[in-house]
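Researcher: Structure for this, please.
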Amino acid sequence: MTGTHPDTVLLDLDGTLVDSAPGILGSLRSAFDELGLPWPAESIGRQILGPPLYRSLPPIVGEDLAEEVITVYRRHYAGTGLLASEPYAGIDTLLHELAAAGTRLALATSKAEVYAAQILDHQGWTDLFEVICGDTLDAARPTKAAVVAEALHRLGEPGSAVMVGDRSHDVIGARAHGIGCVGAGWGYGGPGELAEAGAVTIIATPAQLRPALPSAVEAR
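Model: Predicted structure, token format:
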């Protein structure tokens, strides 16, 4: 199927469709402040965005403290940080073009699904997506591979699919299911991260995605 246009495109959310850093990091800072904890500026920044916070925070603050921080963080995030996400330039046009062309769209994010659904609704994108899949609040899908597996299950195992994401976790999670990943070079990935993880190709702008899709299709 290489060289053919995929019938399904799975898309990451944070760092791929929207810049959610201000809302996430702002809510996290509020949680640290509320708990009276020093802010570890050297350890917490855009580089922690992508994987679930319950995986990113323990190495920084310890397991027990991470759980407490995340509880307070979720309250702040649900109240103010959730909708502090701006679509990247060209994403809205891209999604509408893909949907209009008959491409099945699925969201595959490590963000809690309940939050992801609210963000898509706020942007007016809900009807463009056949499937909205994320993690659960009790961490039932702790890896991107687990999220992709659930998204594919809900899609009914599509014949050809491509993942689009900005972090190595997206590439690795897609590859676990025989799916090629197009790297979103505008996101939160560090220098060389997507290439080292094995992204099929890396694009600089959303406008470059549609031409890149055929080359990213891999036999499943």
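Researcher: Any notable elements?
Model: Strands lie at 8-11, 18-19, 86-87, 104-112, 131-135, 161-165, 180-184, 201-203. The CA atoms of residues 163 and 174 lie 6 Å apart.
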